[in-house]
Specification:
Elements (H helix, E strand, L loop, with lengths): L3 E4 L2 E4 L1 E7 L7 E7 L4 E2 L22 E2 L10 H7 L7 H8 L7 E6 L5 E6 L3 E2 L21 E2 L7 E3 L30 H15 L6 H8 L5 H19 L8 H11 L11 H14 L10 H8 L4 H14 L20 H20 L9 H4 L1 E4 L10 H4 L1 E4 L27
Antiparallel strand pairs: 1-2, 3-4, 5-6, 7-8, 8-11, 9-10, 12-13
Helix pairs in contact: 5-6, 5-10, 7-10
Length: 426
Amino acid sequence: SSDLYFFEGEWREMKQYNETIYVRGSDPVTITIYETHHGVVLDYYNPQVFGGRSFRIPENKRYALGWTGYIRNDTSLYNYFALFGRMDNAQDVINVWKDHVAPAFVFTFAVHNGDIGVLALGKLPIRKYPSKSFIPKDGRFKENDWLGYIPWEDQPRLINPKKGYIVNANNKFATNNIKWYPTVTLYTSARGKRIDEMIREYIEKGKKISVEETKVMQLDTLDILARDLSPLLIKYTKEALKKGIKSSVGEKNITTMLNILEKWDYRAPRDSIRASIFNVWEYYYVRKLLRKVGLQEQDWKAVIGNYKAEHFVFRKIFEWEKNPTDYKEYWCLNEQNEKMEYPCLYNILKSFDETWDYLQKRIGPNITEWKWGKIHHNHYPHTPFSQTPLKPLFHRSHPMIGNGRTVGNSVIRAEADDLNGVVSSN
């Protein structure tokens, strides 16, 4: 029956109630909402909203959305209004947010007395398997239910750190090992590390950080991962050529790109040729990995499109420096290289081949025109006119700086079909 759901060996009855939606110029629409003890069943929502990039949506599956926002005693509105009262110190701010339920977010603050702090807010569930908290669970079993909520006094917070400042750029804000493991699935952030670098530079120079310095930081395009990785790419590409791996575009053209990269300052402004070469190389390289580990295409796209993927992929390259390898590891294998002697090196060189071909076809043979802003845009589609002949009037795009790791941010999705930034709607 559609009114029942299965849990711990027995069928349970779902709660159900009707919602009426009034539509201008049409008759009202009434839908029936079903709810399990986990939450509302998402019959009337596109599951891709809740997944797709992080996990595969199985066919013929329904999802119940467990969300702390369902808690009946939500005092969120009170918390927000209370902030307009007098806040004399950090403790006043902490007291205001004590009963906040949802949404969960990180709140950074500064008080006029000089106190600064960052709080992890909202009800944070305690899970039996915290490392798997970002993927859907099988709702048939009690072991996947939440065990409760992290007590307020145990939620992550930092007040008046000794270094005198706090960085918050969607970065990992606490170790995996704190009580209840609330941060175990958060990813580290090159953006946060770069901001920390810039602040330290200002402090070492004795320079006060004004609004102008803050603007400079907001638009910074230095990719600190590329700073570490690019010299290794040059080294391993040359090694691939020495080991006899053939380039489809010719060793001369590969060497030309490597010579250009050697002079890179690791920044990605719109006019950077070197940023184009590196980011296009990365795009093609990631798409060659994890092809022989048994993932279906949709699963594979979810993995390489996840923010955590680059930490795995590039850490492996860094490890080659400390632990010499024969460059034949499972994550390198694909249909083109699985029978080769050095498949990992092949991926690095082949990605440079494809970079040359892509930039030649997309921009042209004049390398001085290979500017990052020519191939990297953010699109701003209009709903619904971007899907109509009126698209030229409403659809907007703009050349962008940076990538997903730079403070001046424009995320490139590895699983997408181009190098544009995250699409926004208006």
